[in-house]
Amino acid sequence: MLFHRAWTCLLLHFIFPIRVLPAGTSIRTMLALADLLGAEYVIFWKLEFMRLSGEEKHANDIRGMLRTSPDLIDQKLIEEGVRKMSLEKEWARVLEGL
Q1: What pLDDT score does 26 carry?
Q2: Is 92's pLDDT higher than 80?
Q3: Number of domains the chain is built from
């Protein structure tokens, strides 16, 4: 759970700077948002970053999430989202390394 919350906080900080989260947003608020968004949200963004950059570090991060918090991740939701977002290639790359 802590791993998921930490990743979501980082994503909130870097993906939603200024426009969505006002300057000075507290860590407590970010942790509350992390609990609401879910691990799947983090995985989708990491897959998108992977598509854009081609960097393996995003795949490694997702694999770490899948290994450490499998009970927190809805596989069916991930598979549906991957199809809708056309991230099949990136998801397959993640799964190859598991």
Answers
A1: 63
A2: yes
A3: 1
